[in-house]
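pinging the channel bc i need a second pair of eyes. not urgent but kinda urgent?? the chain im working w is below, pasted from the shared doc
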Amino acid sequence: MLGALAQEPGLLADARAKDGERVAEIRGEAQDADLAVLRWAAARGLALMAMLRVSPLEQVDLDRLFARLLDDTQWAGFAQADRPR
């Protein structure tokens, strides 16, 4: 599957467009747009690695990491509220 996508990147055009819409929504709603997109991308990467069965992490570790990504209190110290969106 990855080989086919590498040969014909146009196959992902719809998915890329949807992701672009999602990122625009995230940026529009978030207090710190960069941090919000970073958290989304991290979750997406963990999920894709798990789906492709290439993740070196156990399910319990993935669950803990996803919970941390979702926990806003874990990220409060990193937020840059004064930064323009």
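so Residues 33-51 form the longest helix (19 residues). and The radius of gyration is 15 Å. — does that match what u expected or am i reading it wrong
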